[in-house]
């Protein structure tokens, strides 16, 4: 069993020295932070007792705890012990009880330390703090808080972790309102002991801002006399980067970059200080439970200056999105991506969607394509479709078609195949267009059969498949006619008219609007699919085109026959 220590350093320090006369009250755990305190007379430790305590210590460290306890009890049986010696024995007995996980017994021994009179304040302080820790370990939150309050009442210069212990107990009791000022006290106390360094770093940030004409953008909830230097540094960096992107002169670029580096370094050093990550996490948890999202955002921004972690970036990005701060949301996600924190398919997809929402399709496509290539993004229909959309918007048709082809393969219906056919038609790959359109129609489940057949017919026409194209446009016309009739039926019912009467008035209205004539009655509104006109126009065009091509083919045939019979001199056109 590995011996666990809870501030036992006090005991070993006191064992090594015999104290007489005045005793300088110093807490060993934070001696460097203590100022001069009151002194009090404490008892001395005899050489005999010190030797026995040393023997007990060796046995305990050798995990012979029971044998060590026997020596401690032997010392305790002496009638000539001073208060100080007795307190040291109780401290050791408390420690052995702790090692045996009998925490209540340990607490009782620590309380006996407190009951002695002539005992160094450092030992008393250690006992009080350990009592608070043990009550916390026993999950008796109220007693833990009470023990910390007792300790704070006796400390001239309390340690920040006392407040953290109390705050942790308050969190367990769900007393979030009370918790916040307690944790803030720990943070303020720790930072106040590093005041000069902090002041210099704050001056660096402000002077950089002043030199570049940048004024602090204060939030409504902030005190007019205070500056959030972490946020100010972020603001200064962002504005300087914007200036850098607009500057063309090399000398100015160098100056601005130096200013950016300076403010980043100052902000980073400002964060590296006496506070600990878990303190801020307690504060974040309390604000979250109170639904104080602006404060949660502030804590996350503060955490990320010193502790760049995935969960903080993604949480902050989500809050930015909730607050409709899209630029900051994208920036947070981009940083997480650049630092390699994005590891899941949905994270890559969400980042791509953010880029698309801000009309940056190329970045969306690159992120998503990288996710596919590295096997991170799930190879699902919706993800392939999103990738094809991003590539199309980025005007990278070939890349878009590759993605769309993959999506179509996985799709149960023919919608994506028809969309693929249209994309192939756009790059004049009509043969592949015909294949894709036919596959889509065979799969079925199409939203618009008419438009699908029109796509197929157009590509068949380009491939000189005239008879097939005729049939496709005929099928398109049939479906478009049915849709037109259904639309007219619905509109006439809405206007409380027969379909025939509605159609007469609707056609008259169209003619009058065309010549600019004023309508006699209210304007009729009815959305009729445009595919009907498209399909019929294609049919008419195709008939004329087939007639033209047929004539041309006959002429070519005649020419060939005349050439064969050596009558080329009589060729007429």
Keywords:
2 strands; mainly alpha; elongated; two-stranded antiparallel ribbon; TPR_rpt; Serine Threonine Protein Phosphatase 5, Tetratricopeptide repeat; 573 residues; disordered N terminus
If you had to describe this structure to a student in words, what would you say it looks like?
- This protein is mainly alpha-helical.
- The protein is built from 26 helices and two strands.
- The longest helix has 34 residues, at 531-564.
- The radius of gyration is 41 Å and the shape is elongated.
Task: Compose a concise summary of this entry.
Helix content is 71%, strand content 1%.
Task: Give the SSE order as H and E letters.
Answer: HEEHHHHHHHHHHHHHHHHHHHHHHHHH
List segments where confidence is low: pLDDT < 50 over at least 5 consecutive residues: 1-39
Give the neighbour order of strands across the main sheet: 1-2
Give the integer mean of the pLDDT values.
83
- β content, as a range? under 5%
> What would you give as the CATH superfamily of the domain at 9-158?
Tetratricopeptide repeat domain
What is the correct CATH architecture of the domain at 9-158?
Answer: Alpha Horseshoe
Total number of β-strand segments? 2
What value does the Rg take, in angstroms?
41 Å
Shape descriptor reads: elongated
Main CATH class of the domain at 9-158:
Mainly Alpha
The largest sheet, given as strand count, sense and whether it forms a barrel, is:
2 strands, antiparallel
Number of separate helices:
26
The CATH topology of the domain at 9-158 corresponds to: Serine Threonine Protein Phosphatase 5, Tetratricopeptide repeat
Structural class: mainly alpha
Compute the separation of the termini in Å: 110 Å
Percent helix, as a range, is over 70%
């Amino acid at each position: 069993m590995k011996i666990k220590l809870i501030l036992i350093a006090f005991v070993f320090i006191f064992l090594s020295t015999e104290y007489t006369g005045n005793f300088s009250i110093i807490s060993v755990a934070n001696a460097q932070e203590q100022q001069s305190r009151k002194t009090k007379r404490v008892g001395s430790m005899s050489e005999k007792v010190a030797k026995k305590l040393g023997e007990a210590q060796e046995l305990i460290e050798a995990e012979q705890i029971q044998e060590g306890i026997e020596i401690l009890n032997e010392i305790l049986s002496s009638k000539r012990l001073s208060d100080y010696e007795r307190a040291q024995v109780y401290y050791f007995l408390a420690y052995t009880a702790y090692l045996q996980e009998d925490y209540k017994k340990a607490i009782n021994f620590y309380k006996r330390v407190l009951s002695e009179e002539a005992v160094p304040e450092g030992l008393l302080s250690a006992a009080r703090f350990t009592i608070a820790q043990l009550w916390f370990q026993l999950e008796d939150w109220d007693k833990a808080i009470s023990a910390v309050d007792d300790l704070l009442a006796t400390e001239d210069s309390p340690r920040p972790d006392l407040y953290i212990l109390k705050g942790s107990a308050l969190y367990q009791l769900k007393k979030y309102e009370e918790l916040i000022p307690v944790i803030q006290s720990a943070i303020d106390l720790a930072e106040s002991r590093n005041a000069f360094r902090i002041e210099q770093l704050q001056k660096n940030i402000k002077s950089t801002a002043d030199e570049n004409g940048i004024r602090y953008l204060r939030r409504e909830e902030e005190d007019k006399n205070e500056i959030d230097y972490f946020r100010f540094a972020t603001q200064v960096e962002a504005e300087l980067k914007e200036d850098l992107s607009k500057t063309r002169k090399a000398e100015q670029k160098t100056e601005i970059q130096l200013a950016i580096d300076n403010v980043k370094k100052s902000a980073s050093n400002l964060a590296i200080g006496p506070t600990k990550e878990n303190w801020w996490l307690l504060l974040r948890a309390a604000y979250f439970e109170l639904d104080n999202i602006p404060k949660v955002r502030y804590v996350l921004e503060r955490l990320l200056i010193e502790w760049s972690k995935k969960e903080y970036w993604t949480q902050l990005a989500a809050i930015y999105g909730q607050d409709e701060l899209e630029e900051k949301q994208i920036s947070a996600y981009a940083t997480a991506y650049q630092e390699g924190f994005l590891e899941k398919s949905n994270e890559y997809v969400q980042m791509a969607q953010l880029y698309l929402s801000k009309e940056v399709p190329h970045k969306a496509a690159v992120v998503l394509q990288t996710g596919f290539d590295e096997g991170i993004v799930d190879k699902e229909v919706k993800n392939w479709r999103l990738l094809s959309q991003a590539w199309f918007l980025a005007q990278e048709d070939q890349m878009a078609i590759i993605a769309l082809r993959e999506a179509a393969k996985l799709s149960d219906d023919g919608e994506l195949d028809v969309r693929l056919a249209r994309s192939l038609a756009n790059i004049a790959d009509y043969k592949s267009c015909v294949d894709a359109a036919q596959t889509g129609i065979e799969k079925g489940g199409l939203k618009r059969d008419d438009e699908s057949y029109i796509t197929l017919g157009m590509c068949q026409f380009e491939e000189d498949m005239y008879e097939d194209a005729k049939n496709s446009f005929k099928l398109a016309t049939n479906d478009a006619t049915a849709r037109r009739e259904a639309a007219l039926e619905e509109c006439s019912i809405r206007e409380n008219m027969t379909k025939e009467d509605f159609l007469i008035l609707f056609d008259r209205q169209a003619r009058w609007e065309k010549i600019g004539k004023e309508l006699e009655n209210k304007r009729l509104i009815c959305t009729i699919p445009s595919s009907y006109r498209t399909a019929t126009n294609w049919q008419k065009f195709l008939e004329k085109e087939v007639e033209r091509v047929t004539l041309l083919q006959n002429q070519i045939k005649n020419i060939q026959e005349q050439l064969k019979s050596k009558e080329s001199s009589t060729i007429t056109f």
